Amino acid sequence: MKFFIDTANLDQIVEAQNLGILDGVTTNPSLMAKEGITGQDNIMKHYVDICNIAKDGDISAEVISTDYEGMVREGEALANLHPNIVVKIPMIKDGVKALKYFSEKGIKTNCTLIFSAGQALLAAKAGATYVSPFIGRLDDVSTDGLALIEQIRTIYDNYMFDTEILAASVRHPMHIIECAEIGADVMTGPLSAILALLNHPLTDIGLEKFLADYAKGNK
Ligand code: E4P
């Protein structure tokens, strides 16, 4: 399972990269705004900074346009920034056309705002590299986000689609573990959810005892 971090915060990306487990970064316009990154030039520069930190990882950069021509224009400019850029396209009608365009040009895409199996099927048909079902936002409206991951896994396996399932809107460590059990190809979440995987009280108690026993025997 690939681990992506869902942030535009450079310090957090550095921390995840230094941990040695980072396979990529996802961003969106809200995450960029949260870091105070505004204006086209600054936004483009920030994507390059992220690419330089995350080395070989795939970096999702989202288009703002909602019409086909605009998405193609913006996506090409984003893809030209760095070879690791993945053009993030919303699941709308013109977005499906843009996914097909980029797929034929060999440019990687991430189809975002996926909330149903039908949307995931369309994105795969159009040749998306990744689809991003937002599991946390489904859970927020009393709908089972993980059930959607299972449904998409079944459909993609039935027809051997190459599109990778990128479980997005991950909120906590159990989301990550359950996505791994189901067989999501990738998860993207906050650094806090990734670091929470480290924790177990028996690990802390066990380490404390080992160190205490060592100290007793090596006074
Ligand atoms: C995915 O690419 C999105 O950036 C993200 O996972 C959305 O998560 P949220 O629901 O926590 O905003």
Give a structural overview.
With 219 residues, this protein is an alpha/beta fold. The chain has a single domain (2-217), classed as Aldolase class I (TIM Barrel, Alpha-Beta Barrel), CATH 3.20.20. It is 54% helix and 17% strand. It has eleven helices and eight strands. The chain has helices at residues 10-19, 29-34, 40-53, 68-81, 93-104, 117-125, 135-140, 145-159, 173-182, 191-196, 201-217; strands at 2-6, 24-26, 58-62, 85-90, 109-114, 130-133, 164-167, 186-189. The chain has an eight-stranded parallel barrel, surrounded by seven helices. Strand 3, helix 4 and strand 4 (85-90) form a beta-alpha-beta unit. Helix 4 (68-81) packs across helix 5 (93-104), helix 6 runs parallel beside helix 8 (145-159) and helix 8 (145-159) runs parallel beside helix 9. The radius of gyration is 19 Å and the shape is globular. The model has no long low-confidence stretch (mean pLDDT 98).
| Helix coverage percent | 40-55%
Give the total of beta strands: 8
Taken from the alpha-carbon principal axes, the silhouette is globular
Q: What ligands does this structure carry?
A: erythose-4-phosphate
CATH superfamily: Aldolase class I
Report, as a whole number of angstroms, the end-to-end distance.
Answer: 45 Å
CATH C-level class? Alpha Beta
DSSP helical segment count = 11
